[in-house]
Input
Amino acid sequence: MENRLKERRELKGWSQGELARRLGVSRQTVNAVETDKYDPSLPLALRMAKLFAVPVDQLFLDSWQPED
Amino acid sequence: MDKLLPSPTRRIVRQVATGAIVGAAATGLFLFLADGKLGNFADLSVALPVAAGLSYGLIGLFVALGVAAPRAGAALLNVEDEAEVREQRPMLSSGALACILLGLFMIELAVAPALAASLGPVTTGLIAGATLLALIVIWMRESSRMDELNKQLSLEATALGFNIACLLLGGLGILAALGRTIAIEPVTALAAIALVQLVAIFWVAGRRGLLAPRRA
Output
């Protein structure tokens, strides 16, 4: 799933290691999410959104639309 | 082939080829040094556990080398830099130790009859039991340390490995029951599961692109 994690992280001036430390995950996990190799669990996505003070759907982009 | 493959794929192919060559050389060296004293290596119930044991053992040594020398580790292991090797040292060390112990355990099983003949069945059982116990303790400690990406990879690899092992060993079991082939030894089945699991781990990580060089 496409996401804006890298942009948000860079806006804060954090390295991947710094973000990983704040989230309590490995640097490999942060890298895998940023490069779209891994979609985080809902708890981790919520933690990321909380950390950057944005709604989850501003961090993770999904083009799906419900049918009428 | 180098010109046909893009750079990251080329690097993975090189790493896999290097691993295969080192593994084959180590197996050959082991068989040469054992010189038939540790069992009949033409027997699948000896050769397959030895191959599985050496595969895990070499991977463990490779990772341990990377942890001991972080600068070399940054080039050998799939990490961004030396600092990441240091950050991940507890997890990498446990992983390396677990691989080495699993490798030793498989080799102990492969050569158990020869060991029992020289050391006695009780000592052989105690050695294998102690190795297995250490492996279980490390595995339990390691499980609580894994972050969610590693847990997810482990789940996917275990599911894939289980399905392949069921197909492979189930198929052989059916054929043996029908009298179409001879039944394999339990230790051969165990080694096959270990090797299938190893392939599944690399497959799952590779499919997600996690074996490719990192981009920041």
Remarks:
- Residues 148-177 of chain B form the longest helix (30 residues).
